[in-house]
Automatic annotation (TrEMBL):
InterPro entries in the record: RNaseH_sf, Tc1-like_DDE_dom
GO MF, any single term: nucleic acid binding
Residue span(s) of domain Tc1-like transposase DDE: 1-122
Species assigned in the record: Tenebrio molitor (Yellow mealworm beetle)
UniProt-annotated stretches for the region Disordered: 199-221
Protein name as it appears in the record: Tc1-like transposase DDE domain-containing protein
Pfam families according to UniProt: DDE_3 (PF13358)
Transmembrane segments: none
Length: 221
């Protein structure tokens, strides 16, 4: 998957078929977050950094090193990037919600994909793309409202638990034990826990991690 194919799916399939009052939930895949205008990085050439600054009327001395130029750029780079996807969907009044990085457990669609993948794996005997498409589409149609509700409820419980832990961390941040002049912050104790597991009965299927766009775009194009 790349940004070009994803944008094609977004404009030709998603926008034209999505129902009113919908929200697009995205993870942090790079092709979801292509900025409208690229911001300089430390890997940019010195000449390109100078050009970026001059185009914005930002003063710098010609003798500045590349590191010094990038220091100036960091001060003036936009804090909040504008992404191409957000611009396109704004025209259709579709808000975009981005999940926290590295938290697939907060995305209910991951569990739905697990159900679909298990179904395809169990009944795919021809290994032909057309047959895989039919199996996947059939399983998507078979997912019940109750299954969605169960999965979403489970995700909400995880969210609440994370918020509780965040409050605990805030409360103990100032609790520092000092021994022989050394400081030890015990907040890590509250952060360690086993990964949340979903009851298989809740979703009627196994758990798996999959990327929505990778298979979704392939099936819908």
């Amino acid at each position: 998957m790349n940004s070009e194919n994803f944008m094609k799916w977004l404009t030709e399939k998603f926008v034209k078929n999505v129902s009113a009052k919908s929200v697009l939930v995205l993870d942090n895949a790079s092709y979801h977050n292509v900025p409208v205008q690229a911001s300089p990085t430390s890997a940019w050439k010195k000449a390109d950094m100078q050009k970026w600054l001059m185009e914005r009327g930002i003063f710098f001395e010609q003798k500045c090193t590349k590191a010094e130029l990038y220091g100036i750029i960091k001060v003036h780079k936009p804090v909040h990037k504008i992404y191409k996807i957000d611009q396109i969907l704004a025209e259709s009044n579709i808000p975009v919600l981005r999940l926290p990085p590295y938290h697939p457990e907060l995305n209910p669609i991951e569990k739905i994909w697990a159900l679909v993948k298990n179904h395809v794996a169990a009944y795919n005997i021809t290994f032909k793309l057309d047959d895989v498409r039919k199996l996947a589409e059939a399983k998507f149609e078979a997912v019940t409202v109750q299954q969605w509700q169960n999965i979403c409820s489970h995700v909400e419980k995880i969210e609440v638990e994370y918020m509780k832990r965040e409050y605990i961390v805030d409360e103990v941040e100032d609790l520092i034990i000092s021994i022989n002049g050394e400081e030890s912050d015990e907040s890590d104790f509250f952060l360690s826990s086993d990964e949340e597991q979903v009851d298989e009965k809740e979703v009627q299927g196994g758990s798996s991690s999959s990327n929505l766009a990778d298979l979704g775009c392939e099936l819908l194009t």
